[in-house]
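::Encoded backbone::
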Amino acid sequence: MSLLKHTIFRQAPLLFILVAVFHIAITLFSIYLHHDLAFTFIDWQTPLLTLAYCILWVFVCTMKKWAAYSYVLLTVCSGVLQFVLVPKLELTSYDASLFPVDMVFSVIILAYFKKFS
């Protein structure tokens, strides 16, 4: 854990650390909003998605290319679900309200991509 903390604070730009704090706050808020629901995938898909984004962003802060690819891929998959599959399958419970923000974060990743190892 100290190695992860050392790597994040030494290599990551301040913007990445601030986005990590944002992801952690959104994940905790999403879990709080859904804490009284039964634990089923349908009910907990939004907190699980925000948790996946949060975990991937923490690893993006370590400046690893696999984490950057994974975050962008998760954003693309979320976009496909939001714009292609949800209207066709009528998945009204799928909520990707942070999708535009995640697209901005993916652009930030791509802007810093040369610094990733």
Q: What stands out?
A: The chain is about 75% helix and 0% strand.
